[in-house]
Amino acid sequence: MEPASLKVVTLNCWGIPFGVSKDVKERFTAIAHQLNTNDYDIVGLQEIWSQDQFRFLVDRCRKSLPYSHYFHSGMIGAGVCILSKFPIKNAFVHRFALNGLPYMLTHGDWLAGKAVGVCRVQLANGKEVFVLNTHTHAEYKLKIRKDYNVHRTLQYCDLATLISHLSNFDTRRVFGLILMGDLNGRPKELGYKILTTVGGLEDSWITVHDQENDAICTTSDRPDNMYSKRHVNYSHSQGQRIDYIFTAGFLRAKECRIRPWGSVIKEGSSIPFSDHEPVQAVIEMTEGLPERKAVPEDSAALSDEIIEIFQEGVLALNKLQLICVIALGVVCFALYFLIAFLSPPYLLNAILFVSAIVAIVFVVWQLMFRVPLEINVLTGAIANVSSWLPEKNLAPLSPKQSKKSNNASSS
Q: Which residues contact 177 (CB under 8 A, 6 or more apart)?
């Protein structure tokens, strides 16, 4: 029997190891209990950073959600997984082309290999729905560095382009798509516009409630969450909505709730389920394809804004190349001067020598690997974004063609 609707939930579980995340055992036990008792069809989780955490949830939810898939990426895993009441078919992971900076170890986005997990879930009648689960690059204290802004924008473009390629829906087989996860971006920001305009996605919260209300719909940095600290002296004093369930195709949300399980793991406790709030939606399957919003008039301006960000990123990388060349020359000269003219104590000499070698290796790595890679990725991204609007993707005229065109126009 074909289900009339799908009940889905998404949550960033905050499972960072090494004592960074607090009360992990108690919270994951409570999360598993909620997943078991709320009759969910599909669950998307983020920040499941270890296989032990994943296996714990899979084992606890085996009866209610017998199918599961963990999306591996990067050095420590993308942290995203899907649990389902229905069989999961043809899963794959798409790692974002740019993923933060490898030497920013405390941020960890590069180590995680931020990605989107994609699979087809086969329902009881044999029909299928695409399910995507993602966790994009974070802002980090809202001080958006230009290189992070470039990386984050590119990740949204990757997502939107992937979704547009998956969106050939029909009622005979794959009839819809659900994207859920921690998007690390607020409504009305550039990333949200990219997903809803280029990706053609509908935000379940807006579909159901048709408004933003920071008092009830924020999912992160809430003042009533004991793990949240960032709302203090923060422009978003009620927190921010960055966790979403989007739909496309023959699917549309008819219910959407933030914090459906309450604010704490059990009565009398002060421990919340995570530093984020779960988002739950009931998604109905429509008989006809819901009327898709026309591409807004400002789509050209949107692509221009994206291209400008990428072009600024390329310029910044070109400047970095010049800085690297100068720095390499300075360090090499300092190392030569140290060896040829100075005779510091042995220990100091060893420290200076090793430091110089490390600096040379780092600068050469930037110059020969990281910077050329990012320039190439952004150059390709500019071409990809230009293809969104055919008139922007016209091949340049040769000098002869240009001359003929000018003559024709003048006659």
A: 129, 130, 131, 132, 163, 166, 167, 169, 247, 248, 249, 251
pLDDT in tens, 229-277: 765 556 777 889 999 999 999 999 999 999 999 999 999 999 999 999 9
CA distance 94 to 92: 7
Distances in whole angstroms, Cα of residue 157 to Cα of each of 35, 80, 153, 402: 32, 19, 6, 33
Residues 6+ apart with CB under 8 A from 23: 271
**Identity of the residue numbered 253:** A
Quickly count: other Cβ atoms within 10 Å of residue 146's Cβ: 12
Distance between CA atoms of 378 and 52, rounded to whole angstroms? 37
DSSP characters for 59-95?
Answer: HHTTTT--EEEEE--TTT---EEEEESS-EEEEEEEE
Residues assigned a catalytic role: 276
- Per-residue DSSP letters for 139-179? -STT---HHHHHHHHHHHHHHHHHHHHH----TTSEEEEEE
Amino acid at 140: Y
- Average pLDDT estimate for 295-299: 58
Mean of the pLDDT values across residues 359-365? 90
Ordered DSSP codes for 280-346: EEEEEEPSSPPPPPPPPTTHHHHHHHHHHHHHHHHHHHHHHHHHHHHHHHHHHHHHHHHHHH----H
* pTM listed for this prediction: 0.88
CB half-sphere exposure, 191, CA atoms < 13 A: 25
Provide Rg for the chain, Cα atoms.
25
DSSP 240: B
Q: Which residue has the higher pLDDT, 48 or 334?
A: 48
Q: What is the per-residue pLDDT across 78-129, written as a single tens digit (0 to 9) for each? A: 899 999 999 999 999 999 999 988 888 778 788 888 999 999 999 988 889 9
